[in-house]
Structures are given as structure tokens and as C-alpha cells.
Design goal:
single chain; 572 residues; alpha+beta; Immunoglobulin-like; Rossmann fold; 3 domains; eight-stranded mixed β-sheet; 13 helices; disordered N terminus; Esterase; Mycobacterial_A85_antigen
Length: 572
């Protein structure tokens, strides 16, 4: 436990400092709201800036707006909810810590559904409704119009906020010549969640797909965050009149034009005579906890690993004429997608023939960013006999820190308790943790104090620590994994993800029999470097769908079984 004042203690002290008649916010649900009653998380944002809207400014860091949050239960349409000054907040721990001044304020009701799961438990969670579990934009959420106010935490009174707009449904993408869509109802996930549950594939088909019914194609699975459609593919040249959209991370004043050019260049490669004819799918497996499932079976999310590998992909290959055998399936992705690609290859070693793993989320929980969850007691602090030092969560290539681990977790705590924030630390806990007695994930890290539960840590190690699993099970896995694991990460990854790769590399290089893959590092490269040492990260990160093609073709040449179809899909 922490030696100094805990977050919970700080909240309690701040609450005591709030005047008895401190200013509050009264939030009203529209009288014509679609539902009769609402459960969910009510989020209030105050910002000194008017653009973008306050809801789009919410992020950890020194420039963060003030956010407070609370659960609501059974609030009727037309009803009101009072948000008091002692509610937990970020960056200030309560509204009592917000300086008096002029602010732009906005409220969002993140709506929860009642899930009656197959295990008999009932939980309240935000259903995936088409926006990738982004509470700022999820259809059905109710928002207020931004308004300018004068706020003073020491002044008695009440500020009225009217939720006024229900966010509309997201129109599903339409099929085109090259991009097709496949919505699949998963039997296993439907049983788990107690309601119809779907996985959607955005499938890039090869040139002249409809003119070659005899062809059967290899399949590449591009894992990543929620895809609204297949990305990075454009059949028309860049729009020369498009206003520039800068990217501060890469220092590019017109990054949108770079993206358009790369997407168009990939289209031209895709239709060229020598490019292999294949299928590429981006998968929407958003769920009540996050914008994707990490493609593994989970006590809290359900059997997504089995559903994707054993249900969804065979159905997709049947519809789009995939070869449908392990030697002709490949995985790649970056960050979350890098971890998913590696995990799928390890957990289903015969189902895939190679994973190209860019900047993966922690693949060794001795380096859970900068914390060893097995030996350290706290995820927020390094503690000594006379003091403590805060642990960072994000840096740039110079090592300059943007925010701390506690910052990110405190913000998640405000946005949703019980791992319902849709944030990064929460989804790790939802995927990797056992289920608690209340039907929600057991937390590894206490959001208030940062303390680590060692029992939960052991569950993570035995079931999801990919480096530990490889070391423990290599004798069994080696015949089916040799030559299939290829890992790429920058040595200045913003989220310290390179640290876990170092220990992974040690395990792989000592493996007997040899693993026959590769681990490469980008010098001073940030997140998400994926193996291209010749191009800047700003460009190479846009080339996942083409940069591993040569390696895929070589794997096919080396490993295709006798009699395999190596020609029908090579038409020009």
C-alpha cells in the first residue's frame, strides 16, 4: 500500500473542503428522449477553450479540461440529476480544485444497456453501437450543447445543463468494387452475452474478383482498433483542394494529404499485374468494454478468440472464396493489433502461417509499461524508504514525459467505474482479469491507490503473458510456431512497449528448437514503428497492407503443402 496520501484520501479531504452550499450542476434528460428510463455514466466537462467541443478535448495531460463523472440509474425522461462538487474529477480531484472563471461546459450521458448474460449474471454496460466504444460519439448517447458559464466552486448556486441531442445511428458502409462487408452472427458470443452478437469484416477483394470464380485466395487479417470501414485504400488521387489537417506528433502540416497519397498509392499497387491476388480483412469486434476484443477468449468479454478463428473466418472464407487453410492465413497489426496478431498466432498456432507484430501492447507483464506486476506493489509509484517517484505513462522520442500512469487511470475512473471507461488500462483488465463476484472484471490495479492485486497478476501471467506462455510451453508450441513470429518496435516507443519486447527477444533467441523469426528495433522510433528503417514512421505506419507481402509470399513458398493451390490466385 502507499505510504503517502492515497487518491481516495485526497478526494475525501477535497470533499471536506467544499463549502456546504457549493455550486452544483443540475443536468436534465430530454422529455422526448427515446427511452423511458436511463442507466449510464453522466460525464461533465469544463474547458477554458471553445473548440473543439469540450467532449472532444478529454484526454490525460497538462492541457486536459476538467471532467467529473457519476453513475445514474433509472432516471426517467424529463428527469434531472444533480452533480455535486465532491464527485471525483480529473485533473482536479473534485470541482473544489477548479479555479473560479469562465468556462465552456458540456455534459454527455453515456448510456448503458442491461445485459443478461448466459452465465446468469446481469450487468450494466455500454453496448457497441457503431462508433467503436467512443463515448463522445456513440449512437444513443445524449449530449448538451456547449455553453459558456461563470463557475466559482466557493459560490452557492446551481448551473442548469440541458441534455438536448441524441446522437444518431452510424450509417453502415456500402459495398464497392473493391471493399465488401460481411456481418456475421457468432453463436458462441450470442450465448455468452445473452443477445445477438455480431462480428463484422471489412474485406478488400482483389482486382477482377468477380471475373475469376475459379480462384481461391490467401487471407491476411489486419488487426487493429475499431475500423468503421476498410482504411488506407483510395481509388482516386488525393484531393488537391482539401484543407490541410496538421499532425502535431509527426510535425506534418498536411498529414491528411500524406494519408490520401499513401491510400491511392496502395490502390495502384493492389491492381498492378505483379501484386498477389489476396483477401485482406479488417475486423470490427467492438464489444461492451472496448473498440476491440484483443482476439482472445476472455472471462469478461467472451470467447472472441474462438469466435474469430473458428466461426467468423471460415464463414468469411466460404463467402469470399478464401483457401481456408492455415498455410494461407496471415496476421499483422500494430499496437493493440500487434498484440492481437501475436496472441492469435500463439493460441491458434496451426490456424495461421505467420504474424507480423508491430509495436505490440505489453507482451511480457514484467514490463506492463514500466511496472513489473509480479514483483511491484504499485502501478503509480516507485516507493523507497523515505519517498516515492511517479511512474510515467507516455513519452516522446526525447524521453520527455506527457503524463503519468496515475493520470490516465484517474481519468478512466471518472469516465466509468467497473472497467467501463472504454480506456486502455480498463480494457487490459477486462480482457486479462478473472470475473469478479459482481459479474464485472476483477481489477489488477486499484484505480484510487494504484495498488496491485497479486492474485489477479498470477491469473494474467498464466493466461495472457505471451512471453511467459512461450517460455513455459515452447516444447509443445515450437513445431507449429517456428518461422511465424516477427516483431517490430521502436526503441523509444511512446508507451514503453519496447521494454517487454526486449525480454521476449531473450526468450525467443534462447529457444530450442530455434524460433526462426525476427525481432527488430527502430532507432529513436516512436509508436508505432513496424519494421521499415528506410521511411519515417509517419509514412511507414500507413503501409501495413503492403510491407509484409514479400514475407508472406516467401512463407507460402516454403510451407504450402503438396497439392496446394498456388496458381488460381496469381492471375494477372
Amino acid at each position: 500500500m502507499m505510504r503517502a496520501l492515497s487518491f481516495m484520501g485526497a478526494v475525501a479531504l477535497a470533499a471536506l473542503a467544499v463549502p456546504a452550499a457549493a455550486e452544483t450542476f443540475r443536468v436534465t434528460i430530454p422529455a422526448d428522449a427515446p427511452q423511458a428510463r436511463y442507466d449510464g455514466r453522466l460525464i461533465l466537462i469544463l474547458s477554458p477553450r471553445d473548440t473543439p467541443e469540450p467532449r472532444f478535448q478529454v484526454a490525460p495531460g497538462h492541457d486536459a479540461p476538467q471532467v467529473i463523472g457519476m453513475n445514474v440509474s433509472g432516471v426517467a425522461r424529463g428527469g434531472t440529476v444533480t452533480m455535486t462538487a465532491d464527485l471525483p474529477g480529473y485533473p482536479a480531484r473534485t470541482l473544489a480544485g477548479v479555479p473560479a472563471g469562465d468556462y465552456h461546459v458540456q455534459a454527455v450521458l453515456h448510456v448503458y444497456d442491461r445485459f443478461r448474460r448466459g452465465d446468469g449474471r446481469t450487468v450494466l454496460l455500454p453496448a457497441a453501437r457503431g462508433a467503436g466504444q467512443n463515448w463522445r460519439e456513440e449512437p444513443g448517447n445524449i449530449i448538451s450543447a456547449p455553453q459558456r458559464i461563470r463557475f466559482d466552486p466557493a459560490r452557492p448556486g446551481q448551473i442548469d445543463i440541458a441534455l438536448s441531442r441524441v446522437l444518431p445511428p452510424v450509417a453502415p458502409p456500402k459495398d464497392t468494387t473493391f471493399i465488401r462487408h460481411f456481418k456475421f452472427k457468432s453463436p458462441s458470443l450470442t450465448r455468452f452475452w445473452g443477445r445477438d452478437t455480431y462480428i463484422t469484416g471489412h474485406v478488400l477483394v482483389p482486382r477482377d474478383f468477380d471475373l475469376h470464380p475459379e480462384a481461391r485466395f490467401p487471407l491476411a487479417i489486419f488487426h487493429g482498433h475499431f475500423p468503421a470501414d476498410f482504411g488506407g485504400f483510395r481509388t482516386t488521387p488525393p484531393d488537391a483542394d482539401a484543407p490541410c489537417v496538421p499532425n502535431a506528433r509527426f510535425g506534418e502540416p498536411c498529414y491528411n494529404r500524406i494519408e490520401q497519397q499513401e491510400a491511392y498509392d496502395f490502390y495502384r499497387k493492389w491492381i498492378s499485374p505483379d501484386f498477389p491476388r489476396m483477401l485482406i480483412v479488417e475486423i470490427d469486434h467492438s464489444n461492451p468494454f472496448y473498440d476491440d476484443s484483443y482476439a482472445v477468449n476472455s472471462a469478461n468479454l467472451g470467447p472472441y478468440g474462438d469466435a474469430i478463428t473458428h466461426e467468423f473466418l471460415p464463414a468469411l472464407e466460404a463467402k469470399f472464396r478464401g483457401i481456408g487453410q492455415g498455410w494461407a492465413r496471415f496476421l499483422y497489426g500494430g499496437s493493440t493489433g500487434g498484440w492481437s496478431a501475436m496472441a492469435a498466432q500463439i493460441f491458434y498456432p496451426r490456424a495461421y502461417n505467420g504474424a507480423f507484430i508491430g509495436c505490440p501492447d505489453p507482451v511480457d507483464f514484467r514490463h506492463y509499461m514500466v511496472t513489473n506486476i509480479y514483483e511491484e506493489r504499485n502501478a503509480y509509484w516507485r516507493e523507497g524508504p523515505f519517498g516515492r517517484v511517479a511512474k510515467p505513462a507516455k513519452r516522446n522520442y526525447l524521453g520527455q514525459v506527457d503524463y503519468m500512469a496515475e493520470d490516465e487511470n484517474r481519468l478512466e475512473y471518472v469516465l466509468g467505474d467497473k472497467t467501463r471507461s472504454g480506456g486502455q488500462w480498463d480494457i487490459w483488465e477486462a480482457v486479462f482479469s478473472p470475473m469478479g463476484a459482481d459479474g464485472y472484471p476483477r481489477p489488477l490495479v486499484d484505480k484510487l491507490s494504484g495498488s496491485i492485486d497479486p492474485e489477479v497478476a498470477r491469473h494474467w501471467r498464466d493466461n495472457y503473458d505471451l512471453t511467459h506462455i512461450l517460455a513455459r510451453d515452447w516444447a509443445k508450441l515450437a513445431p507449429d510456431l517456428a518461422g511465424k513470429l516477427h516483431v517490430y518496435v521502436g526503441d523509444m516507443d511512446n508507451y514503453y512497449l519496447n521494454n517487454a519486447v526486449y525480454t521476449l527477444e531473450q526468450v525467443l533467441t534462447r529457444a530450442d528448437p530455434p524460433y526462426r523469426g525476427e525481432v527488430l528495433y527502430g532507432d529513436r522510433a516512436e509508436h508505432c514503428w513496424n519494421g521499415d528503417a528506410k521511411l519515417p514512421n509517419a509514412v511507414s505506419r500507413l503501409r501495413y497492407n503492403s510491407m509484409y507481402v514479400d514475407k508472406i509470399l516467401e512463407r507460402i513458398r516454403q510451407t504450402a503443402p503438396p497439392g496446394a493451390d498456388l496458381t488460381s490466385w496469381r492471375y494477372r
